[in-house]
Design brief:
This protein has 131 residues and is an alpha+beta fold. It has a single domain, classed as Beta-Lactamase (2-Layer Sandwich), CATH 3.30.450. The chain contains 4 helices and 5 strands. The chain has helices at 8-11, 36-41, 52-59, 63-79; strands at residues 17-21, 30-34, 87-95, 101-109, 118-125.
């Protein structure tokens, strides 16, 4: 983890979290941190998902569904009020490493609360109620 990023609060969060480093010359941003809740719930290690491109291949292995998520993301970004909204949220199915597909609300920061040049992605699992 980058020593300049404060992760103490993130380490103990029960919510799965990734920290991503913005890369000015690329849309393939580096994933530099995952908390224990992310590993416990989703399972992918930083070695397996070092950047956005690797994440998309692991989380959305079906190319057709990748396109659906990409379109959903683009629509969400277009409708976001970049001055007033702190997060963009999309609801997607994510392939976990050990537990198959789970459904999540994925909240991506629009303006960093950690440090300029980095943003947080939070994963809120949606649990289905059994009838």
């Amino acid at each position: 983890m980058h020593k300049s990023i404060p992760t103490e609060i993130l380490d103990n969060s029960p919510v799965p979290i990734l920290v991503v480093e913005l890369t000015e010359d690329s849309l393939n941003h580096a994933i530099i941190y995952s908390n224990k809740a992310f590993i416990d719930s989703i399972g992918w290690s930083l070695e397996e998902i070092p950047d956005k491109n690797h994440w998309w291949k692991k989380a959305y292995p079906d190319p057709s569904y990748q396109k659906v998520v990409e379109n959903l993301w683009e629509l969400s970004m277009e409708s976001a009020d970049l001055k007033n909204d702190s997060y963009v949220t999309i609801t997607v199915n994510i392939m976990t490493k050990f537990n198959g597909v789970k459904r999540f609300n994925v909240h991506t920061e629009l303006q960093s609360t950690l440090k300029d040049g980095y943003y947080v992605v939070k994963f809120e699992e949606i649990t289905q109620l059994n009838d």
